[in-house]
């Protein structure tokens, strides 16, 4: 089953230099798929920060793609190299929390590649869905997870010093 028919949410960060008509081209696909696909054009792929990639996963993306210029063809010299390092760092972070690092993927274009951003997105959506929905998706209107875990003190009898602990009216401690 491809990602489009699987109903997965896709976020695509891309360098604006790749498609001169990117604004019109991506809007066609946004109208077709609605909120299931989000595009974030960047002046240079080197402007991406790991926080942007992590935030995309946190807000509901099942897959996040970063499309960069061909190596050596970056308008700002090293932007695509920076983007590659930052994506690798973000992959390491999500692997530490138990998510598949392949949920963040780097797509490097080739010299002379004339595909528009909507054609690239169609190619990505046609890929086989290797993952299901993102288990880290936040639910609710305020961005709070609906599956809060209950914490128990490691040593009963010692004071409870937890960061991010919420005490509800029943005295039960929950991690938020």
* Spatial sequence of strands, sheet with the most strands: 2-1-3-4
Residue ranges: pLDDT <50 for 5 or more in a row? 139-155, 158-168
CATH class of the largest domain: Alpha Beta
Terminal CA distance reads 35 Å
SSE pattern? EHEHEHEHEE
Determine the CATH topology of the largest domain.
Rossmann fold
Share of residues in helices: 25-40%
**Global geometry:** globular
Structure class: alpha/beta
Extended strand count: 6
Content of β-strand = 15-25%
Query: What's the CATH architecture of the largest domain?
Result: 3-Layer(aba) Sandwich
Please work out how many helical segments DSSP would assign: 4
Calculate the mean pLDDT score and round it. 79
Overview features:
2 domains; globular; alpha/beta; 4-stranded parallel beta sheet; 176 residues; Rossmann fold
Structure in words:
With 176 residues, this protein is of the alpha/beta class. The chain has two domains: 10-125, Rossmann fold (3-Layer(aba) Sandwich), CATH 3.40.50; 143-176, no CATH class. Helix content is 27%, strand content 16%. The strands form two sheets. A four-stranded parallel beta sheet has the order 2-1-3-4, with helices on both faces. A two-stranded antiparallel sheet has the order 5-6. Helix 3 (79-96) links the parallel strand 3 (63-68) and strand 4. Residues 139-155 and 158-168 have low confidence and may be disordered.
């Amino acid at each position: 089953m491809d990602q489009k028919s699987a109903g997965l949410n896709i976020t695509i960060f891309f360098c604006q230099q790749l498609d001169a008509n990117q604004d019109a081209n991506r809007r066609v696909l946004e109208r077709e798929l609605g909120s299931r696909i989000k595009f974030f054009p960047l002046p240079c792929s080197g402007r991406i920060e790991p926080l942007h990639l992590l935030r995309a996963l946190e807000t509901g993306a099942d897959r996040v793609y970063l499309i960069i210029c061909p190596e050596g063809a970056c308008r700002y010299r090293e932007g695509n190299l920076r983007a590659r390092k930052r994506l690798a760092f973000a992959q390491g972070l999500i692997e530490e929390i138990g998510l598949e690092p392949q949920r963040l993927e780097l797509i490097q274009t080739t010299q002379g590649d004339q595909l528009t951003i909507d054609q690239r997105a169609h190619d990505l959506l046609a890929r086989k869905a290797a993952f299901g929905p993102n288990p880290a998706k936040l639910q609710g209107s305020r961005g709070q997870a609906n599956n809060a875990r209950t914490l128990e003190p490691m040593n009963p009898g010692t004071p409870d010093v937890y960061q991010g602990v919420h005490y509800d009216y029943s005295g039960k401690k929950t991690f938020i």
